[in-house]
Amino acid sequence: MLEKIDLSKKISKKEFNALMRELDAKLGRLQRSCKEKRIPVIIAVEGFGAAGKGTMINRLIEPLDPRGFKVYTTQRETEEERYYPFLWRFWNTMPGRGRITILDRSWYRILLNDRFDGKSDAKSLATAADEINSFEQLLTDDHIVLIKFFLVISQKEQKKRLKKLADSKETAWRVTDGDWKRCEHYDEYFRLTEEALQKTDRDNAPWTIIESENREYAAAKVMSTVVKRLEEAIADADRRAAAPKESLEESAAIYPDAFRASALAGVDLTKSLTKEQYQKQLKELQGKLSRLHNEVYRRRIPIVLAFEGWDAGGKGGAIKRLTQALDPRGYAVQPVSAPNDLEKSHHYLWRFWTAMPKAGHFTIFDRSWYGRVMVERIEGFCSGDEWRRAYTEINNMEESWANSGCIVLKFWMHIDKDEQERRFKERQQNPDKQWKITDEDWRNRAKWDQYEVAVDEMLVRTSTTYAPWIIVEANSKYYARIKVLKTVVNAIEDYLKEHK
């Protein structure tokens, strides 16, 4: 991509000034339109050292309302950030609907500077390009405008600019030993860059190469590209707004199918334990988990546990028996309900990525991202396209977590319809438990058959080697709690043996 670039391109000052007046006015209007239409925008600026990334960003934001954008500079990972998957910190920079995020370097650092400097480990590099492509596909599928720039200058021009910066007291601090090293080994850095760009140049997220020897030409190309992409995004938003909407029946797509794959049909709900068996095993397993938690922290292993299941399926009871064995400083329980206004303004996975545990800690989700393919699907809170692609998005997210060393386990707490009704009535009659039963629980129960189809599809399509579903026979609360504890203990022990 880079070797054919003509770096001699120029534009006269007169042409530049006339063009920029026009582009500035357009960009200001487009920002307001994106805000009105709730279109999020991410602009990632990459390039060779001293190619003018900061200058380009400063020129780009001149006509923008500062209340509607934020600029982030991506340095090498901090000690805190190293305790999370490498994409975690970029999920924390995601713009809300109608806002703009500008990144001075981005998630490509792992494939560029960090790789050249030997700071990216082999395991991360093996999966980084695939994870980046999946991440960008997820963003653009959600109609986030993603614009990627790479600024190119020659080695000769780079040396000249670095020297000029280094010779000035005001700017010398900006030039690092790493900058000089990458300049000295320009051809090697060029090769790594070419490889990274080729692996991540996709129709949904193409690279725009900026010939940056002439600063005016570079600035004009950056501004023209942003204006063009925002105009296209606004036109696309208008087309989608005018298109016929799916009916709830079409979007949910719940149809009887005698030949569908079923994960629930053969579950034996008669499994049970006596109180004595339960108490004995509970004490033993909680003791093991407590000891393992110390090793998890020492070895810096992050653990994600997600609980789904029928209403009154026993999620809370199972979670309580887990947390009784854990150091309260080393876990967080995340109860998940309908998204609030802030969460609705972001991609649906944003609130789960930002709640990731740091290495050595547990995060336990009481309901999870799987609401997308269950309640949101059935109640029509998302479109058919959105929930259908969610299976792939979720698998990719969980794989990214597993690649970073995270143990991911997902529990489906399964009870039958009669047991659910018995528990609902018991809650209604107990003043201390009445808060647990709502009209919504009864409404969901009326759609049991629809949910069963959706759950079967979810379990079949998203149970993976790196993030398996565990169906918990939960008609017996004693049996269910012990199975959950035993599964977590065994998973940690297996991980420790495998990663000695």
Annotated CATH homologous superfamily of the largest domain: P-loop containing nucleotide triphosphate hydrolases
**Sheet/helix structural class:** alpha/beta
How many strand elements?
10
Question: Could you name the ranges where pLDDT drops below 50 across 5 or more consecutive residues?
Answer: none
Distance between the termini: 43 Å
Helix content: 40-55%
Q: How many DSSP helices?
A: 20
**What gross morphology would you assign?**
globular
At the fold tier of CATH, the topology name of the largest domain is Rossmann fold
Strand content: 5-15%
CATH class of the largest domain: Alpha Beta
Main sheet: strands, sense, barrel: 5 strands, parallel
Element pattern in H and E: HEHEHEHHEHHHEHHHEHEHHEHHEHHHEH
Assembly state here?
single chain
Tally of distinct domains: 2
Radius of gyration: 26 Å
Task: Describe the protein in words.
This protein is of the alpha/beta class and 500 residues long. The protein has two domains: 13-242, 3-Layer(aba) Sandwich (Rossmann fold), CATH 3.40.50.300; 250-498, P-loop containing nucleotide triphosphate hydrolases (Rossmann fold, 3-Layer(aba) Sandwich), CATH 3.40.50. It is 51% helix and 12% strand. It is built from 20 helices and ten strands. It has helices at 13-36, 53-61, 88-91, 113-116, 122-141, 155-166, 177-184, 186-200, 215-242, 248-252, 275-299, 315-323, 341-344, 350-353, 375-379, 384-403, 417-429, 439-446, 448-462, 477-498, and strands spanning 41-47, 69-73, 100-104, 145-152, 207-211, 303-309, 331-335, 362-366, 407-414, 469-473. The strands form two sheets. A five-stranded parallel sheet has the order 2-3-1-4-5, with helices on both faces. The mean pLDDT is 95.
